[in-house]
Amino acid sequence: MFVIITYDIGEKRVGKVCKKLREYLDWTQNSVFEGEITKGKLTRCLAELKDIMSDEDSIYLYKVENPKAIVKEVIGEDRSFDRLFL
């Protein structure tokens, strides 16, 4: 499935959350990750994130069951990792 994850994490934990999400998804903007992931890997990723998070932190998960149904339009510079370094 294709997912988009955004987060609002306390300053002390934001680096750990970003590093963890990079293990599973593509970093597209500050606090935004996206990409294809299996249900098992997503479950593991979310469990690892919950271990890092505090009560005041939040993560938003958008699941797209049919990635062909989503249209992504970038207005301005595309800062996704693949475009920057490949």
TrEMBL record:
<keyword id="KW-0378">Hydrolase</keyword>
<protein>
    <recommendedName>
        <fullName>CRISPR-associated endoribonuclease Cas2</fullName>
        <ecNumber>3.1.-.-</ecNumber>
    </recommendedName>
</protein>
<feature type="binding site">
    <location>
        <position position="8"/>
    </location>
    <ligand>
        <name>Mg(2+)</name>
    </ligand>
</feature>
<comment type="similarity">
    <text>Belongs to the CRISPR-associated endoribonuclease Cas2 protein family.</text>
</comment>
<comment type="subunit">
    <text>Homodimer, forms a heterotetramer with a Cas1 homodimer.</text>
</comment>
<comment type="function">
    <text>CRISPR (clustered regularly interspaced short palindromic repeat), is an adaptive immune system that provides protection against mobile genetic elements (viruses, transposable elements and conjugative plasmids). CRISPR clusters contain sequences complementary to antecedent mobile elements and target invading nucleic acids. CRISPR clusters are transcribed and processed into CRISPR RNA (crRNA). Functions as a ssRNA-specific endoribonuclease. Involved in the integration of spacer DNA into the CRISPR cassette.</text>
</comment>
<keyword id="KW-0460">Magnesium</keyword>
<keyword id="KW-0255">Endonuclease</keyword>
<keyword id="KW-0479">Metal-binding</keyword>
<dbReference type="InterPro" id="IPR019199">
    <property type="entry name" value="Virulence_VapD/CRISPR_Cas2"/>
</dbReference>
<dbReference type="InterPro" id="IPR021127">
    <property type="entry name" value="CRISPR_associated_Cas2"/>
</dbReference>
<dbReference type="Pfam" id="PF09827">
    <property type="entry name" value="CRISPR_Cas2"/>
</dbReference>
<keyword id="KW-0540">Nuclease</keyword>
<keyword id="KW-0051">Antiviral defense</keyword>
